[in-house]
């Protein structure tokens, strides 16, 4: 049976986005035949050889000042030489993204868009969240999957005065798990299609 490797590469300054990243990886590893690997980054150093082995890379960063954190951007910029100029070695891998911030919007969309453009620069295939928006009717609630109503990737919201032990809430972690599982299933389809 075919196997697929899903890498989750993320930055987290204070631990909230790390919770989201763990949920993404848990969702991916639930899919039989998929091995999920978590890679925290905080600048230009990354396990480049291991990322090379991945069939899909899911990128995540907190939204800081309306975009991915500077530490995650430094990782992205490093790929200019380690990946792009080294032969475009991420071409045709799958990609997806997630972000977390304090406000419900907090301009998270700008971070997801930036990550999607980054993936496109590497010739990767973008996998969207694939969930309808939650909590957008009188029947909705804060417990809904995709309660923040994103399509491009998974969003989470962490109250500014709460630590990563309680934030982001379960609904956002389950949304992150959904993204991981969706990318894992798609990665298996790609791997089997190549065989
Ligand atoms: C430098 C900085 C900039 C921030 N900018 C935003 C922002 O633009 N929008 C927002 O909603 N929250 C913003 N926040 C709040 C963080 O996104 C939020 O605390 C998040 O949970 C941090 O994730 P982390 O614990 O993984 O670092 C900012 C926080 C910091 C430290």
TrEMBL record:
InterPro entries according to UniProt: Flavodoxin/NO_synth, Flavodoxin_CS, Flavoprotein-like_sf, FMN_Rdtase-like_dom
Cofactor: FMN
Keywords, sorted A to Z: Flavoprotein, FMN
Record bears the keyword Flavoprotein: yes
A Pfam entry, by short name: FMN_red
GO cellular component: membrane
The keyword Flavoprotein appears for this protein: yes
UniProt-recorded Gene Ontology molecular function terms: electron transfer activity; FMN binding; NAD(P)H dehydrogenase (quinone) activity
Flavodoxin-like domain location: 6-153
Domain of life assignment: Bacteria
Name this polypeptide is given: Flavoprotein WrbA
Source organism per UniProt: Duganella aquatilis
């Amino acid at each position: 049976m075919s196997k697929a490797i899903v890498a989750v590469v993320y930055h987290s300054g204070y631990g909230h986005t790390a919770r989201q990243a763990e949920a993404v990886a848990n969702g991916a590893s639930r899919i039989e035949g998929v091995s999920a690997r978590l890679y925290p980054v905080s600048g230009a150093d990354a396990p480049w050889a291991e990322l090379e082995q991945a069939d899909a890379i899911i990128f995540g960063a907190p939204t800081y000042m309306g975009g991915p954190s500077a530490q995650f951007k430094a990782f992205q910029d490093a790929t200019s030489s380690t990946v792009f100029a080294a032969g475009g070695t991420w071409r045709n891998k799958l990609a997806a993204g997630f972000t977390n911030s304090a406000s419900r919007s907090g301009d998270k969309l700008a971070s997801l868009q930036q990550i999607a453009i980054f993936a496109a620069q590497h010739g990767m295939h973008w996998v969207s969240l694939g969930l309808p928006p939650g909590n957008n009717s009188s029947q909705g609630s804060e417990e809904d999957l995709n309660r923040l109503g994103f399509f491009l990737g998974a969003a989470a919201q962490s109250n500014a005065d709460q630590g990563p032990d309680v934030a982001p809430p379960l609904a956002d972690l389950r949304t992150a798990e959904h993204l991981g599982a969706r990318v894992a299933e798609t990665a298996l389809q790609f791997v089997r299609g190549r065989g």
